[in-house]
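Thread: N-(5'-phosphopyridoxyl)-D-alanine complex, take 2
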Amino acid sequence: MGVYPIILTQSKFMHRDHLKYPFEERGLQFGDGVYEVIRIYQGEYYLFEEHIDRLYRSAEAIKLTLPYSKEELKDLLLELMTRNKMNKDGKLYLQATRGSAPRDHIFPKGVLPNIYGYIQELPRNLNNLNNGVKAITRRDARWENCYIKSLNLLPNVLAKQEASENDCYEAILHKDGTVTECSSSNVYLVKNGKIFTHPATNNILHGCVRMAVERFATDLNIEFIEDAFSVEDIAKADELFLSSSTSEVLPIIQVDHTIITDGKPGKVTKMLQAAYEQDAKLTK
Ligand code: PDD
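Output below.
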């Protein structure tokens, strides 16, 4: 389940073993770049437009000009899939940095961004999807512009590591008790048949699956309320779930020492999972 051999770098395709990584690279030295993770089902990108749009929004927010149009980039990514003869479930990792230049905080002049993308196989985790996962709560120690999908993920990495050390899948982050999102996913609370989640402000990543969840909820006549909930509300929740490109719509059945309702995935969560599977043309 490794990386497929052909990777995209700048506008070219090459074998992954031939990529030369300069050590003076702004992504490495400053985290000066943006990225996307796009889910692949049976060799097709899921929520492709949404991810490409967000990549350009993130790039613009850090004043990084990508050297080609959205259409050109999409064509390159489609070609990457074809060249790898990829027809399974997987993910694309795509990264754009401010390029290679002698280390200086100020933007380098006349330097092209380094862009690379590669594909990996990633089977769906049906066990997690069917049974749910556990989470911990942690303080959200990130900066003010979490809507930018930037490479600066140290607080996310530390929170996720703590989750893992506590035998949990995710860390639910909060600012002064208000839940924002998880370390690498969005999070939702269900109460009396309504879905509550943090509004799409600067304090969370505007997830592509989050957008899809809102669409599914509307189609299913379930109220989708962009009103943040608190850590205290979690104990009173009927259901809790998270979403991301790699996790899909995933039930959370326990948070810290609190078991959510009966410790089983809830009704609304299951309806959204079914809508997701339909939208992504999946069969369990
Ligand atoms: N993470 N919030 C954060 C902080 C994330 O890192 C992610 C995605 C999401 C969900 O976004 P989307 O629905 O567009 O995948 C929310 C990716 C998968 C990652 O970093 O691996």
